Structures are given as C-alpha cells and as structure tokens.
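User: Show me an example of a complex going from sequences to structure tokens.

Assistant: Sure. Here are the input components:
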Amino acid sequence: MELIQQLVNGISLGSIYALIALGYTMVYGIVKLINFAHGDVFMVGAFVGFYSITVLHIPFVLSLILAMAVCAIFGVLIERIAYKPLRNATRIAALITAIGVSLLIEYGFIYVRGAQPEAYPGDVLPEHAIHIFGAKINSQSLLILGVSVALMIILQFIVHKTKIGKAMRAVSFDAEAAQLMGINVDRTISATFAIGSALAGAAGVIFGVYYIKIEPLMGVIPGLKAFVAAVLGGIGILPGAMVGGLLLGVIESLVSAFGYSLWRDGAAFVVLILILIFLPSGLFGKYKREKV
Amino acid sequence: MAIFKQAKLFWTSIVLSLVIFGVIQFMITGQMLNLFYVNTLIFIAINIILAVSLHLIIGITGQFSIGHAGFLAVGAYASGIITMKLELPFAAALLVGGLVAALAGFIIGFPSLRLKGDYLAIATLGFGEIVRIVFLNLDYVGGASGMQVNHLTTWPWVFGCMLIAILVIVNFTNSTHGRACISIREDETAADAMGINTTYYKVTAFVIGAFFAGIAGGLYAHNFYIIQPSNFGFLKSFDILIFVVLGGLGSLSGSVIAAILLTVVSTFLQDYPETRMIIYSIVLIVVMLYRPQGLMGTKEITSIFSKGKKTKGGAKDGNKQTVA
C-alpha cells in the first residue's frame, strides 16, 4: 500500500507543479519567452502567504487570495519593466534578461530580509487522516488538491468563456493579426502575466502549507521542474501543463518509492531530455514543420 | 599580402602574450605578487578558457547551450580521479579531463541537435543538472561532501592552456569549418540548403567547446583542495554564459575582456555574495535592454585598429545580432 501512498503524495506535489506550469505555458504561448522569474514569483507568493498568516493573522483562504493578488501585480511589473522593451529583440536577449530578473529577485530578496528559512505554522488547515485502501491520506493533501483543481477550472473558464481569454488565445495564435483585429496586445500580455503569476503565488502558499519550510531560493528547483512539466505536456497548451505537472509529480514520487530518492531531482531532467528528443512538441502538441 | 598581414598579426599577438606571461611569471618568482593576486590571475585564465569555449558554441555556431558547468564538472572530476585515485601526472589528468568532457559534449550534442533555440537551452540546462546529481550520488568521488584534490594548478599551466585554447578556437573560427559554423549561426535552414552538413559542424563545435571546458575543469579542480557537486550548479553555467553575452555574442575578444572584467569585479565582491549577485543581475538586465548585442557586438578588438575597412561578413555582420 506504500505505492498508493506515494501516488497520493505524487498527485499533491504534481498539482503544485501544474499550477506553476500553467503560468509558464501561458506566458510561453503568448510571448515565446521562458520566464525564468516565474519560479521566483512562486517564492514571493509563499512569503506573502506566510507573512499574512503569521503577522496579519488572516485566515488561509484570504491569505491565498492576498498572495495571488500581490503576485499578479508583481508579475505585471516584471513584464512592464524588463520584458516589454525587449518584445522585438532576439530570443537570446529575452532569455538572458529573464535569467537576470530571476537572479535579481532572489538576491534582492535575500539582501532585504536575509537568507534564513521560515516555517509555516502547522495549524493553518485542519488535519485529519483518512484511510482509503490502506493508505493514509492527509486531509491537507486533499484540500491542496481541491484548491488546485478549483483554480484550474477557473482558469479554463477564463480562457474559454471570457473576452480576455478569447483575446489571449487570439494573441497566442498570431499577435500581429490579433492587433489588426483591434485587440490590445499589450493589455492582453499583461493579463496573461497577471493570471499566470497569480497561479504561481497560489502554488507558493500551498507549497508552504504542505512542505512547511520556505526560503528565498525555494523557487529555483520547483520553477525548473514546472517548466519541464510544461514542456512535457506540450508548451503553450493549458491542459498539457496540468497533465504534465501531475505526471511529473507522480514520476518523482515513484522514483522515491522504488528507493532512488536521491535521484529524484535527476528524474525530472531525464524525462525532459527524453521528451525533447522523442516528442519535441510534448504529449499534446502537434508537430509543426518549419517554414522557410 | 593578406596572408603576410595575418601571419604578422599572429606572431605579434604570440610575442605579446609571451611577454605578458614572462612579466607575470617574473613577478611571481620575485614575490612581488602575493597569493591573492596570483589566485585571481589563475581564476581569470580559467574563466577565459571557459568563456572562449562557450563562445565557440554560442557565439560562433549559434547553439544556445546553458549547461556549460556540466562539462566543467565532468572535466574536474575526471582529472581529479586521474591524479588522486590513479596517481598519474597532472598533464595526463588535464588531457583526460578534456577528452572525457569532449565525449560528454558528443553524447549531449548528438541527440540535442534536433532542438533549436529555447529547447536546446533547456535541454542543456537539464544535462548540467543531471551531471551534478550524478556526481552527488557517486560515492566513488565523495558524493555531496566532495573529493579531495591536490593543489597542482600553477600560473604556467593555466597560461599555457589558455593560450592553446584561444589559438585553437581562433584558428577554427577562421578556417572553412568556422565559416560553416558561422553560416549555421546566421541561418541554419539556408546553410543546410547550401549543402553544409549542419549536424557535423554543430557536433564538432560542441565537442571542441566541451573539450576546453573539461581542461578548464581540470585546472579548476586542482586549484582548490576540494571539489563538490554544488560548485557546478547552473549558477556556474550562468556565470560563464554572462561572460559570453556581456562581451558580445560572436566576439572572441569580447568574451575574453568580459571574463577578465567580471572575474576581477567578482573577486573584489567576494565578501558580499548577495551584493555581487545583485550587481551581476542588474548589469545583465541593463546590458540586454540597452545593448543587446553585448559590449563588442560581433566585432573583434583587432578590427578597431583597422578602421574604415569593410568587415568580411555580409550586410548583417556587426550591426545586427543574429544569434538564436
């Protein structure tokens, strides 16, 4: 029954990856940029949640919303200051700027508050153990799963049923044509960054509640893995990011379950390289031939 | 005439670099430089090797690889094993470090060639991380606590390796192979259509770049008393990438200058690691926003002295960045 237990852990971890991966995939779909700073938005979300729970004594749900709001603003600011001037620059310039922004957030944060880790209070969510098929499932992991699924459903609704969602799909399909059709591309891109960053912020709070320990450099590895998840599902495709995230979480948990827990971090990158070699457009992507 | 001029330039630069070497060697033996400065000089030379080796991959061939620390790690550990476990001489260690890293370059280069731009970048990043995790889990080389290595790196060794690395890469760039690589950088599809074997040249560039990164790894390892997997994280890859990008993609002298400049700056900021990273990242962002082609663009330092002459490249050369 160890296996079911690990599967549950994997799904909880995977839903966190999926939330971050959604932001990556949305941004990549619309501006073709690997937003390296996305993992750091996740970190900022975790800290906003932490401070609002411990210092401001706000209940969990409101803290989550606060963290999402702060991260949305933060994401838009990053886009406006660092990425917007580079919209017509080369890909490499944009990518390096993203790396620079990521380093700046991490070390700026350390400079301001120090590098010491913080521990989330344990009593944020009620804790019950539920026994199913002999596996002990924490009520926390169920709640986390519930929050992630709810956010993903809201996102699907926004993208497919609202005007801004339609604009986002149009811009990601062809930015120039969308502009000719009267869509405000700048505003659409800002909205994309805001939504993606809000999801990353929510993932940060959930991560803090689930794994207790948070620190300024915590965003780096989950950020990279979320990107792997986005590539796994087919970058630019929202359901792909969700499936990719869940799949990656499960793979990692299974690797630990079979006793290779030290190789866990490596597994994600091995999956990445295999996917890129054999299925370069991901599980859900279509292969596009390059036009000359 | 052109050949004479090139030969003259070549010998002038060789003589000049030997003079620099001699002066510094004289100052070291005369104990005019203390250990701190000698160490900084060794660091500069190692970083120059790393910068020019990555320059060949990114600046010349246009393959955006950000896992260079992986090759550095392979070279460092391979040469460490040669000297510490097998107790062979240092020269053999450097050579084996380079060769093993070149093999790694071949292994990663060959399958990744189907990838372009961002995807290649992320695949090489993943490769660098895998290398780090493998060394972290290998008990033979000490795992997380690291591997003890003797201090064998001296100024003549680093300078010699640096000179060889620069010479090989300059000559490669100016050869037929180098031109083929540049054509791949400018437009891979067009180069392929003109009958250039893009796979072959991309792998060659990867292997040569990895070879010198491996040698730099050997020098790096034997400059410390201990090497740990945490020394070779992707922050190290970014450090090397920054040399190349800041100096100007496609400019060898640019990456050398950036390597010297940034090594000096970061050495003096060593006591304030956070400030160092903040300054680093701000410089990176500002350069990308206001001068995306880097300090030198694709120009070389020699072309500053021969002003007014047309560069050999096409219309794009020197004014528009075409990498990636």
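The lines above are the inputs; the final block is the predicted structure for all two components together. The interface with chain B takes residues 32, 34, 82, 85-86, 89-97, 99-104, 106-108, 110-111, 115, 224, 227-228, 231, 262-263, 265-266, 269-270, 272-273, 276-277, 280, 290, 292 of chain A (CB under 8 Å).
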